[in-house]
Structure formats: C-alpha cells, structure tokens
Design a protein that fits this description.
Strand content of chain B: under 5%
CATH topology of chain A: Spore Coat Polysaccharide Biosynthesis Protein SpsA, Chain A
Number of domains of chain A: 1
Structural class of chain B: mainly alpha
Number of helices of chain B: 4
Structural class of chain A: alpha/beta
Strand content of chain A: 5-15%
Shape of chain B: elongated
Helix content of chain B: over 70%
Order of helices and strands of chain B: HHHH
Largest sheet of chain B: none
Helix content of chain A: 40-55%
Shape of chain A: globular
Oligomer: heterodimer
Distance between the termini of chain B: 77 Å
Largest sheet of chain A: 7 strands, mixed
Order of helices and strands of chain A: EHEHEHEHEHEHHEH
Largest interface: A-B, 16 and 11 residues
Number of domains of chain B: 2
Chain lengths: ~230, ~110
C-alpha cells in the first residue's frame, strides 16, 4: 500500500501528518509529492523517512496526485491512498476503506463526510456546494456520491492504472469520479470523520467557490459527453 | 492602383518575406506559418479583389464595402486566437507530463 500526500507549502502540518501515519500505519510506504513548495515541506518529509517527489514548479492538486499515481502504477502497488497534508484526514479511519479495495470488491473507496451523520458540520456554503455537485454527478452517471469533493480515498490497481494515464488537472476530485464510473469501475463511499486542518488556511474564497462550482460542473458535463474508448 | 492599394501590396510582400524568414530560421514552424503566409497572400491580392469585394458586400447588404475586410479580419483573428488557446492547452498537458517524469526520475536517482 502506498500513501500519497500531495503537499504545497505544508511545512506547518506535514511532520505531524507523517508522524501519525508512522504510528498507525507503520508498514505503509509514504510518498510526499511536494508540488513546487517553497518552504521546508520536502525537507521535513525526508527527515520523517517519507519518499519525496519534488515537482520543480506548482502543477496543482491534479498534477501532483497524478504524479503519485504514476509512481504507484510503476511500482505495482495494490492500493494507493490519498491523504491531505493539512491533517484533515485521520488515517485511523482507513481500514474500512482499504479492505474492500484490497479484496477487489471496489476500485475506489471514498471516505465520506455525508453518507451518514459523522458530526461534520463545515461551512454552509461548502455543504450546499457538495450537495449540488453530488446531484449533478448523479444526473451525469446515475450513481449518488454523497461527498464527491472528498480527497480521502483509496484506489485499487485498475483505478491506479487509469489515473496514471488520465487525471483531471484543475479540480480533480469530482471529475475523476465521473471518469471512473464512465469507464465501468466501481466507486463506493464509507463514512469517515474529518478534522479541521492542523495549520495554514484554506485557499478557497467565496469567489473561488463559485468558480469551482462552474468549472467542475462544466468539466463533469464534458466528461459525460466524451466517447469512451475501452 | 492607388497609393493605399500599393501600400497594402507592399505590406503583404514584406509580411510574407518576414514569415518565410522566420520559418527558415526555425522560429516558426511550417504548420504555424501557413495561416500567416495565407494572410500575406490576401494582403498582396487585396487590391485586385475590389470588384468581387463590392459584389460580396452588395450581396450581404453592406453599404460600405471595405468594412467587409474588417469583418474578415476580426473573424480570422478570432480563429487564430482559438487555435492558439488549443495549442496552449496541448503544451500545458505536455509540460505537466514532462514535469512529472522529471520529478519521478530525480526521485528514483536519489532512492537508495
């Protein structure tokens, strides 16, 4: 199993995240993809014993995650776990996501804040955005994903192979789900608890949220219209 | 041929020569230079196209025939901009791929 952590200037939290992974998932390989960071993110990750891929300039979350999937595909990992570098994802929640992927039951397991009441409250705008996107995805694919923007997910070999070759660049979480479902891969959600970020501030402003919704909505629709080559 | 027509023809010749020189020095690919060569040909031929232009203008209901050139120019620039945007998207995808490959190779070099 490979844990992929895309990180852009997360020196304030990456050490704690890696310590937690070492404590609760000591046998997992950990790959930090430093996405053009200008702080000590890469150095701190190396000190903690993680493998580090340093992108020479910022590609964004999609480009950084795809780098991790390429690494996972080359080294034939059976599961690739995406964990955010800001500490929001608790690796103790991983086992229920990992088991169905490792057994081949599903191709992508998503840790969801909304599939049952996990106590997550978050900003109202974010919950409305997730609700709208969830219904948009259902309209486009026929499958309800309650938390389509969740970045806490586990990919199996088929999803890793697909993402290594094709992964959305700008706002990948939602579009990548549609890509998988359209290609006939199985996606399921499991309830997880998520925490507030350990350090730094979210870069998402109200204006960016609107831009996000429009871009993701369009990307999902275009993805739906593409002719699939299987 | 009046002075403006002569100036346009000269401009077309100079522009065509510039495009060919850019292609010769590999500053512009043949594929990307072709539309610009086409433009220079249009500029050179423009003074000869006055009567056909008047007929097209009359058919379109445009009272001032030279305005057709403005319309054609704007549509042409629109398509060139659109094509350039597609080229940017393509180049961006290549840069992402190369950046990822470079970073992965460097990581493998450092790996024990």
């Amino acid at each position: 199993m490979l844990i992929i952590i895309p990180a852009y200037n997360e020196a304030g939290s990456i050490g704690l995240v890696l310590d937690e992974i070492r404590t609760y998932m000591p046998t997992a390989d950990v790959l930090v993809v430093s996405d053009g960071s200008t702080d000590d993110t890469a150095a701190i990750a190396r000190e903690r014993g993680a493998m580090v891929v340093e992108l020479p300039h910022n590609l964004g979350i999609g480009g950084a995650m795809q780098t991790g999937y390429r690494y996972a595909a080359r080294h034939r990992y059976q599961a690739a776990v995406q964990v955010d570098a800001d500490g929001q994802h608790d690796v103790r929640e991983l086992p229920p996501l990992l088991t169905p992927v490792l057994s081949g039951e599903v191709d992508l397991a998503i840790g969801s804040r909304y599939v049952t009441d996990t106590g997550y409250r978050g900003p109202l705008s974010r919950r409305i955005g997730s609700w709208l996107l969830a219904h948009w995805v259902r309209l486009m694919t026929g499958q309800m994903i309650h938390d389509p923007t969740s970045g806490f997910r586990v990919a199996g070999p088929r999803a890793i192979a697909l993402f290594a070759e094709e992964y959305p660049v700008d706002y990948p979480e939602v579009e990548s789900l549609v890509l998988l479902i359209r290609r006939g891969l199985t996606v399921r959600e499991w309830p997880v608890r998520m925490r507030p970020r350990l350090a730094g501030r979210s870069s998402i402003t109200p204006l960016k949220s609107v831009e996000y919704m429009i871009k993701v909505g369009l990307a999902v629709w275009i993805q739906r219209m593409r002719r699939e080559v299987t | 041929m009046n002075r403006v027509a002569g100036l346009v023809t000269l401009l077309g010749l100079a522009f065509g020569w510039t495009v060919i020189q850019a292609m010769r020095r590999r500053k512009l690919s043949e594929r990307d230079g072709l539309p610009w060569l086409g433009l220079s040909v249009v500029l050179i031929a423009a003074p000869l196209l006055r009567q056909p232009l008047d007929r097209v203008a009359a058919w379109l209901g445009v009272h001032y025939a030279p305005a057709i050139w403005l319309l054609v120019g704007m549509i042409g620039l629109f398509f060139i901009c659109f094509r350039l945007t597609m080229v940017v998207t393509d180049l961006q995808a290549r840069v992402v791929r190369l950046t990822q490959e470079l970073a992965l190779m460097k990581q493998e070099d450092k790996a024990p």
